[in-house]
Amino acid sequence: MSLKSKVVGGLILAGCASLYGCAGQHSESALQEASADFQKVKEDSNVLRIAPKDVIRAGESLARADRLSTYWGSGSDVVHYAYLSQRYSEIAREHTNQVLNEERAAKLELERQRLQLALRESKLLSVQQQGKWLEEQIVALATTQTDRGLVMTLGDVLFDTGEAELKNSANRVVLKIVQFLQLNPKRVVRIEGYTDSTGGKQENIKLSRDRAQAVADVLIDLGIDEKRIQVEGYGDEYPVDVNASERGRAQNRRVEIVFSDEKGQLGAAR
Hints:
The chain is α+β, with helices and mostly antiparallel strands. Helices cover 62% and strands 8% of the residues. It folds into two domains: 13-101; 123-259, CATH 3.30.1330.60. Strands 1-4-2-3 form a four-stranded mixed β-sheet. Helix 1 (3-42) runs antiparallel to helix 3 (52-68) and helix 3 packs antiparallel against helix 4 (75-122). It starts with a helix and ends in an 11-residue tail after the last strand.
């Protein structure tokens, strides 16, 4: 074989090795991404409950891509099955999110109907009896009069960490607030949301406002004019307990209702 033929042959072999190396790196990257996505859906209990078939398909496709990765020249097949695995993982997440949203909406609608029923039943009491009883209840649940007005704290464990959805344990108190405002049409309220120290500052401010808005939405849904409601979010400022313990953090995840006087005048905000 001539020297020229040897040189050309060597260049061809080097080029093939380079191309294979690039293809191998691409398929390896695709395999790693698919594996990471599958690991996430596999560890999500909601995904496993709602979309088990898609999780199985994602796992089967990933296993096939992994097997093919050991064979020479199968890079395109590895990428193909890795893509299928990622797509099944994505479908599983999308299906899960859709079902969770539907479940959450159904739960909220059921609770809204229950509250409205309780509100209608409570109207069987005379307005005078109801007004006196509610006044006593509101005062008993609120703190002493402050420069902000009469302040009521809605429980100590109304929200889970990182969540803005109001727990059912708050509904009885919220119902009393609705009745009180209906019997005192000139009064207005400021709803203030607070978080524990978990999370960043901006995240906590948004979360605290979302929590206050969640309470406001219930009041509005039960017939209180939104013009009578102000909403504020203070994040993890103004804690009522230390954030070093779970009990303290639970106390700080709260919403405070500030009532105006009988003429509708609210005290200054924080």
